[in-house]
Write a structure and sequence with these properties.
mainly alpha, 2 domains, two-stranded antiparallel ribbon, elongated
Length: 97
Amino acid sequence: MPGELGEVLPSMKTIPLTQIDETVFPDFSLRQFNFRFSTAGPETSMWVMRLGLRNDERLQIAHGISTMTNHQGVFDTHPDWFAIYGGKTDYEPGNSK
């Protein structure tokens, strides 16, 4: 993490590395936490990229779910994506739950 609380690295001309041949298969396909590159400075953005965190542009989460589902056509095609209240699927344009 950059800044006062971040990691301090010594200045080095080269970085000695041992020979490795390793393949890693994480238990999860996407490493992400709530981070927006557009609101962070360059140091923080570089830190996040070094951690291997990426935002998948195909995945809309949090507030973005409303953008994806708040359309009558989506409700007509996929009513199973919407909550059921009182035995019926609830959809009100502009106020989906």
